[in-house]
Design brief:
Blueprint lengths: L1 E6 L9 H10 L2 E7 L3 H12 L4 E5 L12 H11 L4 E10 L7 H18 L3 E6 L9 H12 L7 E3 L6 H9 L3 E4 L10 H6 L5 E3 L21 H12 L3 H16 L3 H9 L3
Parallel strand pairs: 1-2, 2-3, 3-4, 4-5, 5-6, 6-7, 7-8
Helix pairs in contact: 2-3, 3-4, 4-5, 8-9, 9-10
The chain binds zinc ion.
């Protein structure tokens, strides 16, 4: 089955979870990693994962949610949460240069500090890099992220550039550092992503939905959900000239490889055997 390597489904109304997961399983998505964006939100992600055999948690402080510098107490909390068995990645962390994003020094310090927590626990990191506006060809946030990833030795626990939006040369920077590249539904509409989708090594590609509640879409049926994973897989298959089955097999294998010693529980969800 597929693994949705990045979503925020714990932010949905609790009454929605059963439906979201049954639609996911019907679409052959056997595991969903739901990522926290603050310490408190990470606790909610873990609580959901605790009660569901196909849901796993990420813990982290999202750069856009920093209302003040990340404190030592926050880092201690995140480190305690990172040790729990429901947690499989440090996520969502990163660098965001969009307008009105928080102080860049706070973001850089938080990113660096959380990478160290991830390294301490051997947790892969799933990170966000967003440039100002919609200029995905810009590079300032990416340059900052790459420098921090390199200096902090984040390539050792590994991880992925999530919701990748950029050019091939940008993807190559993350690949050189040992990270995976994760594609979302943006691949269906941004044709400039196709070069990366074609060239990324077969053992380094992942797929995700980044699903979260989208009340701005009036039609509930149009909200992105983990069940949309096959759409991304079919587009990747078309671009690479392989079958969607091939994409499912390799992206699941890649996700399990990335999760390393945290992969065992996820493997049971997608393969039925440990
Ligand atoms: Zn996200």
């Amino acid at each position: 089955m597929f693994i949705d390597t990045h979503a925020h489904i714990h932010q949905h109304d609790p009454d929605e979870i059963a439906g979201i997961m049954s639609r996911a399983v019907a679409a052959d998505v056997g595991a969903v990693i739901t990522a926290g964006v603050t310490v408190e939100d990470s606790r909610k992600a873990i609580a959901l994962a605790h009660g569901h055999e196909r849901i796993f948690a990420g813990v982290g402080m999202h750069p856009s949610d920093l209302a003040s510098p990340l404190t030592d107490a926050d880092l201690t909390d995140l480190s305690d949460l990172a040790a729990l068995p429901e947690v499989v990645v440090m996520s969502e962390i990163g660098i965001d240069h969009q307008e009105r994003s928080p102080d860049r020094r706070w973001q850089e310090e938080a990113f660096q500090a959380q990478i160290l927590v991830a390294r301490h626990h051997g947790l892969p990191i799933v990170f966000h890099v967003r440039e100002q506006g919609d200029d995905y060809d810009a590079h300032s946030a990416r340059d900052v992220a790459v420098a921090i990833l390199r200096e902090s030795g984040a390539g050792t626990p590994g991880g992925t550039a999530h919701y990748f939006q950029g050019r091939w040369k940008h993807a190559a920077q993350f690949l050189d550092l040992g990270f995976h590249i994760s594609f979302a539904k943006t691949l269906l509409r941004i044709s400039d992503l196709e070069e990366t989708a074609r060239k990324v090594p077969v053992d380094r590609m992942l797929i995700e939905t980044d699903a979260y509640p989208q009340p701005f879409k009036k039609n509930r049926a149009k909200w992105t959900e983990p069940r949309d994973i096959p759409l991304v897989a079919e587009k990747l298959a078309l671009i690479r000239g392989v079958s969607a089955d091939d994409i499912r097999r390799v992206t699941t294998e890649n996700a399990l490889n990335m999760l390393g010693n945290r992969s065992k529980v996820v493997k049971t969800a997608v393969r039925g055997t440990a």
